[in-house]
Amino acid sequence: MDSLIPFTTSGSLVDCVDRKMLVILRDGRKLHGVLRSYDQFANLVLEATVERIYHGNAFAENPHGLFLIRGENVVLLGEIDLDQEDDVPLRKVDWQELEPIHRQDTELKRQREEVKAQILYDQKGYSKEGGEGDGY
Question: Which residues form the Sm domain (predicted)?
Answer without folding.
Answer: 8-83
